[in-house]
Amino acid sequence: MKTRNAHALWKGNLKNGTGTLKLDSLEREFQYNFVSRFEEGEFTNPEELIAAAHAGCFSQAFSMLLTEKGFEPVSISTTAKVKLVKVEDGFRISESFLVTEADVPGIEENLFQEIAHIAKTNCPVSQALSSIDIKMEASLIQ
What we know:
By secondary structure, the protein is α+β, with helices and mostly antiparallel strands. It folds into two domains: 6-38; 46-141, 2-Layer Sandwich (GMP Synthetase, Chain A, domain 3). It is built from four helices and six strands. It has a three-stranded antiparallel β-sheet. Helix 2 (46-68) packs across helix 3 (109-122). It is elongated. The model has no long low-confidence stretch (mean pLDDT 95).
């Protein structure tokens, strides 16, 4: 399997500094700063990128598991909400909350929920985030 790369460059102190994040797969840099990370700024932040990775990974894992069980998903739409909290000695990511809606013809609700929970537990990003609380709300749309 391929190793994936990203690069961060930070200039200055925490409060007044600025940084860029670059993904090897894109010819673009993403800006981030204190305000975008700890307040409500206009740029991205590491937690938003973790949320994107978690939502994408979960959706693919869920699709794979549904297909293995004989169901053909029409669509899986997932939002991940990654929470950054202040703790005694700094900050930490405390949870990722997956909210997913999927159109999967012919599946029963109980089986849908069972497969969604397996995907939540076993997708590679969930495994990497296993030290935090991972919650999920899965809705079947038909």
